[in-house]
Amino acid sequence: MRLVPLLALALALNAGAENLLKNPSFEVVSDGSPAAWSVFVQPKQGASSFYDQRVAKDGSASVKLSIDSPYIEDPANNWSQNVLADVRGKRLHLNGMVKTENATEAAVWVQCYSRNPLRLVLQESTASSGLLTGTHDWTPVELSLVAPIDTDFVVVRCVLRFRGTAWFDALSLEAETAQIKSPAAPAAKMPTPPSMPAVPETIPAPPATSTVRPAPSDEIMRAHEELRKANWQLRQSNAAMTEQLEELRGQIDDLKRQIGETAAAAKQLQEGQPKRVERETPVVVPPPPLVPNEDAP
Length: 297
Hints:
It contains 2 helices and 10 strands, in the order H-E-E-E-E-E-E-E-E-E-E-H. The protein has 297 residues and is α+β, with helices and mostly antiparallel strands.
């Protein structure tokens, strides 16, 4: 009969869970864009992003992504926000609302990064629990994950892939503030807090100090810029190769045309030349044999 008190305690602990996202409903604007959010859209014909004040689920605005023609390259077009809170080893819950119009795939991603070196250690998408495609009114999406112990920061992305239009609104990212243990479980040794490295028991741990970690935004931007430059160089290389192939194709066509013209000229020359007539060897008729004349005496 202890389940009821435990359930009440769990609800009380999670009821006041903080939304780790800033400006989750895109109501605060800075320089014409939603504050605390960044947007990435590939420079492609028909690909665009909007701060939409006409369509919203919560409040008066949402963010929008639109792609007219199929686009399969990475990175995908997205709105994103970096979450710098310490969530290592904690269970994260993401919720949001998504509206689609002829969309191939619309989803919200949660990415866990480590800083040194900068790498992606875990990625989850709301598409794994239910792929949102086609045309739908506002639809709730959610996911849950445990942040790896080497997570230094989290990135939340509102993503549209391939083609279509999608709106995103009313997002929340919460971390469980405590874990409830069963009273029947035996007493266990308290684990090392996720924010501290494990140390041998014989060496006293140094007193906890408050360390301000540098924001990883610059590192992300540098990595993003390097990726953008690499994509641009690849596109330039592909364009140069395509131009060379077109030039080579033109040369081959010219060569074919010259060969055809030469063959036609040779044929005309051959047809216009008079045929050589071989002279027949005259037939020599031998003289008749000498015979006596009947009239001769």
